[in-house]
Design a protein that fits this description.
The protein is 29% helix and 26% strand. The protein is α/β, with parallel strands linked by helices and 456 residues long. The chain has three domains: 14-52, no CATH class; 65-167 and 315-390, FAD/NAD(P)-binding domain (3-Layer(bba) Sandwich); 168-311, FAD/NAD(P)-binding domain, CATH 3.50.50. Helix 3 (73-85) packs parallel to helix 12 (364-382).
Length: 456
């Protein structure tokens, strides 16, 4: 018997391994108790399992060790600023990728406004320049009792753990439940917000498209970079115009209206791409046939020649499988203190970046701003202190044209309403007139951010 839910191979169930935020290796071969102690010798276990019980090959910690899971904008910022706010910390950043490729500004790359070197950077450079350690590995789970993180290269002990594992696509929310159909959809029509391979596939699509109907979707809920799908539609239309491809772009928005920079994007759709972009709000996707290339919404049905399907998103499964999520949250966000970012019952485990529960923008600048604060919170906690809550800052540039590059921008903060118990926008400055100055500012902003994350 193979495949099915709950099936164990070599005496190990992944669900059991991650249950309740701990690591449980069951089935008779090997186990980890509440304190993380091996209850069977690793010599008697299959090699892959024995490796989990060995300490990863890292130098001994020189101080309190902080393990950061996830090398995106949030994790990179955390690793740097943890060392800045407390130089005695021994910081280890773990990411399954061996190199960094930026999703912010990737739309400009799709339209040939920057090259791939602009988006690509080395985790080694970041670690060397900022004094922390980088480990290329996949995190399989963690045990909060023993304060231990498990990877396929062995375990790493921690004094503080910061989870910044990002987002995952939630295909069942658009009617795609079958694992095989999900895999086909992900590979053939990727959304472009989780892996760098998606970006490579999308660029090939838009530069080789011969004509016909090209579909892009905008998810509902809180998704990564609210403006990005609208910006991407503009970039795709601009590339088609430059290539003189006759195409109809259907932008299916699961929301009732453009969710950010509404007037600027609406004007771009009308004035720049009125003959190519058809914007369709309230297009809640109910089913999708990958082979037939057909999308069904609550009110209509659309066939397409090619597509970029961006479904609703959820927090990384690492959060849910560890049992630290809020079961009432449809996006499986963690149950954390909204001002301190740690689990409500564990001040040594924090969640930041796009997997966090707060409704702040899931964008690069927000992650960078927020992570500096979280790093300061952890550094203060290690010294027995607290700092006052401060809002992250969101800064977002959106390009709408490429000849020349023209963009608009928004800057905002957030405030907490103690009456409603909700966060809201605060001190928002919107420039929705797109121009070349905005286009150049968007690239200068990205250069400055990469410099801070990797070299400064």
């Amino acid at each position: 018997m193979s495949g099915g839910k709950g099936v164990k191979r070599n005496g190990i169930s992944r669900r059991g391994f991650l249950k309740s935020g701990g690591a449980t290796l069951a089935g008779g071969a090997i186990g980890i108790g509440a304190a993380g102690t091996a209850v069977a010798s690793s010599e008697s276990s299959p090699p892959a399992i024995a490796r989990l019980l060995r300490k990863a090959t890292l130098p001994a910690a020189s101080g309190a060790r902080v393990v950061v899971v996830g090398g995106g904008w949030s994790g990179l910022t955390l690793a740097k600023y943890l060392k800045r706010f407390n130089p005695d910390f021994d910081v280890v950043l773990i990411d399954r990728q061996s190199a960094f490729v930026s999703f912010p500004v990737s739309n400009a790359w799709l339209a040939d406004q920057v090259d791939l070197d602009f988006l690509s950077h080395s985790f080694f450079d970041a670690a060397n320049n900022h004094g922390y350690r980088f480990m290329a590995a996949t995190v399989l789970g963690f045990d909060r009792d023993s304060r231990r993180v498990f990877t396929e290269q062995g375990y790493v002990d921690y004094d503080y753990l910061v989870l910044a594992p990002g987002i995952e696509y939630d295909y069942p929310r658009i009617g795609v439940d079958d694992p095989e159909a999900q895999e086909l959809l992900f590979h053939r029509y990727p959304g472009g917000f989780v892996t760098s391979s998606e970006l490579l596939t999308i660029k090939r699509k838009i530069h080789r498209f011969r004509g016909g109907t090209f579909v892009l979707t905008v998810p509902s809920g809180d998704y990564r970079c609210a403006a990005a799908p609208y910006e991407r539609a503009c970039m795709v239309a601009a590339v088609f115009r430059r290539r003189r491809v006759r195409a109809k772009i259907l932008l299916l928005d699961m929301n009732s209206d453009i969710v950010i920079k509404r007037e600027g994007f609406a004007r771009a759709f009308d004035e720049l791409y009125g003959d190519s972009i058809e914007y369709l709000p309230s297009s809640e996707i109910s089913a999708l046939d990958v082979d037939a290339r057909r999308i069904e919404t609550d009110f209509d049905e659309y066939e397409f020649d090619d597509a970029i399907i961006y479904p609703p998103v959820r927090a990384s499964r690492l959060i849910e499988e560890a049992g630290i999520h809020n079961p009432e949250d449809p996006q499986k966000a963690p149950d954390t203190d909204p001002f301190r970012y740690h689990l409500r019952n564990d001040e040594h485990v924090y969640v930041a970046g796009d997997s966090r529960a707060q409704p702040f923008s899931k964008g690069g600048h927000t992650a960078h701003s927020e992570a500096q604060y979280v790093a300061e919170v952890i550094a203060a906690h290690a010294r027995g202190r607290e700092i006052a809550w401060r809002s992250p800052q969101t800064m977002c540039f959106s390009a709408v044209d490429i000849e020349p590059l023209r963009a608009m921008s928004i800057i905002t903060y957030y405030k907490y309403d103690s009456t409603t118990g909700l966060f809201a926008f605060d001190r928002t400055h919107l420039i929705d007139r797109w121009d070349t100055q905005g286009g150049q500012a968007s690239l200068a902003w990205a250069e400055g951010m990469y410099r801070d994350l990797f070299y400064g």
